[in-house]
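Record passed on underneath.
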Amino acid sequence: MKLIGAFLLFCVLAACDVGVPGGLPSAQTQITDERVLRFMRVVETVEPVAEKECRARTRGVNCNFTIFIDNRADQPPNAFQTLDRQGRPIVAFTLSLIADARNEDELAFVLGHETAHHIAGHISRQQQSAAAAAVVFAGMATLGGADEAAVKRAREIGAQFGARRFSKDFELEADALGTIIAARAGYDPVKGAAFFRRIPDPGDRFLGTHPPNAERIEIVRRTAAAM
């Protein structure tokens, strides 16, 4: 165990720090809350598999995942992947998502999905797409005789377009690789992806950030069947 600030945190693996940015109500709550303990078990099992996949599929990439629990009461069920200033991959789960999960398979699939975003380099690829589109849109506006304010706005629109252009593809890529990670960690990713049936369906909107839920369930099913 590792003491950070006034809160007791479980450090389930040497290669995986599990922290709580907002702090759990108390150490005793964390120890006795079966939902959090269940999450810790999943992290302990899935993280080394994700790290192994990361090292096998990448070169020169930091594969030392940091996994946090964000228990702020106003946060909806959510998980996301980002990078710290040193380029270390961070995966965060809200406590409400941990509480909402029906089983360990769902937690394992979500964790596999989020680590897959890092392994696939989605943040850098999204940034590159946004930068390229911003240049194109600004150039078109300049050639069209737009003033400085209009060119700036065109650049912003281009960046938004570029950032979202491949977001659905990235989600499906992460679903597929997340399926592999969860399965290799001993979980059932098809069962884990069942949570897609409980969340609002984003549909197939132009420049939407997520693909339809049915499409995501199907990619999980096909990937698992092919293993």
